[in-house]
Amino acid sequence: MISRTPFDAVVRERRVLSEHLVRLVLEAPDGLVSTGMPDEWLALTVPGQFQTRYYTVRALDEALLTIDVVVHEQGLVTEWAQTDCVGDVVGIAAPKGSFQPPPDAGWVVLAGDLTALPAMARISETVTTLPVTVHAEISDDPVQDYFARPVEWHHAEPGESALADIVRGLEWPAGPGYFWMGGESAQMREIRRHLRHDVGWDTRHYDVMGYWSGSRGRQVRAVDPGPIYAAGKVAGKSDEQIWADYDEARNT
Ligand SMILES: Cc1cc2nc3c(=O)[nH]c(=O)nc-3n(C[C@H](O)[C@H](O)[C@H](O)COP(=O)(O)OP(=O)(O)OC[C@H]3O[C@@H](n4cnc5c(N)ncnc54)[C@H](O)[C@@H]3O)c2cc1C
Question: Which terminus of the chain, N or C, has fewer Cβ atoms within 10 Å?
């Protein structure tokens, strides 16, 4: 069977960034190449496990890969990342990304919970020609120096999210733009509906991704978003349709 995480990577450094966020710096394996998309993610398999989980590439230079892991109440990666994992060998896959503002976008707005912090920070560092506004929902104190630009922080109780309400209350900048959002799946579904029915944007102008599911506290089936994204693109689907397919695949 072909491994879903064909590259081996050794954890070189583990650093606690905040109460619920741990930075892991791994030795980047030969052949691991960035897509250049600032929200790119990769599949990760931790020692002793075969299931994968998905993590944003916070940074990938020639030698080092950085990922920032949210430690929540329970979970495969959560529990492993709380141990002294320096020296552990993990499996990772080639990155995939989906952040793609249309050519007429005059602004970028980002919204997400703690799991989306790495993507939002990297996007806001990478997009230099458009104004970028960031809304981050977290239960900890703001993570010091995580962003190179101002961020609007919103408080949430641990494991909970009200991002949909926050986004519904936003005043959008004038003219066409691009809205990117990542976080709890039910919140993302609500916002896709809102953008489609109430705001009426063309789907090229937003990308709303379910990163995890809080529904009934059960573990959602791990499904690689990469093949679903690639197949959706080949089929000419919008990002909105592709991420809806992904949510459905995880919940069946
Ligand atoms: C494209 C993409 C990029 C992502 N990037 C990142 C990233 O950079 N950093 C990051 O930390 N996560 C990221 N995630 C989310 C991460 O993959 C999930 O949170 C994952 O389920 C965590 O795995 P686990 O093994 O710790 O918990 P699991 O074993 O998957 O879940 C155990 C239990 O915890 C609950 N749970 C899962 N995640 C959370 C959470 N965040 N808060 C509260 N409860 C939760 C589940 O509902 C389940 O009941 C990303 C997801 C996607 C799809």
Answer: N
